[in-house]
Amino acid sequence: xxxxxxxxxxxxxxxxxxxxxxxxxxxxxxxxxxxxxxxxxxxxxxxxxxxxxxxxxxxxxxxxxxxxxxxxxxxxxxxxxxxxxxxxxxxxxxxxxxxxxxxxxxxxxxxxxxxxxxxxxxxxxxxxxxxxxxxx
Amino acid sequence: xxxxxxxxxxxxxxxxxxxxxxxxxxxxxxxxxxxxxxxxxxxxxxxxxxxxxxxxxxxxxxxxxxxxxxxxxxxxxxxxxxxx
Lengths: 136, 84
Description:
CATH architecture of chain B: Roll
Number of domains of chain A: 1
Mean pLDDT of chain A: 95
Low-confidence stretches of chain B: 79-84
Radius of gyration of chain B: 12 Å
Strand content of chain B: 25-35%
Oligomer: heterodimer
Strand order of the largest sheet of chain B: 2-1-5-3-4
């Protein structure tokens, strides 16, 4: 499951999608909008994606994971549009026979997603705004 | 030759649209494309040092030569916006 959506995100559909009879562990990650960033008060975030490139880049990350660890399945979904404080911007789940692979692969997935997947957020603060994108 | 240019985030706000079609001489590179667009939208120069490119949905170096009907994207990593 690799997707970009404008609907609110929760973990359960991803966990269900990745869990196999061979899975002994499911590791998951949620990115959440926090109220302060670099000392500034956030009003809301606005996410934008280059969808036609972002989903293939998510699949490439999954391929990288499969070359590094023995995992069962990988799911990544990123939300776009306006997000309020406390809302989920990105959800990732990785299943594997054993916990170490699942945890390492999940951490790798979110780090790589931020590096290579063309998704931007506009941080709108009480006193300004800034776009933040892939940090390659 | 004509190439499509997708603009995102700060680049989209400066250009005022998510997509441009730019007519370039055959064999032009990404840098030559950027020069052309910057001529039209000088505020893009504020992003130029940090701008990344993709061609046909793969990241590409700025000296890459373009072909007709390529889909280029301007991918700004981080960009300051005007304080409000």
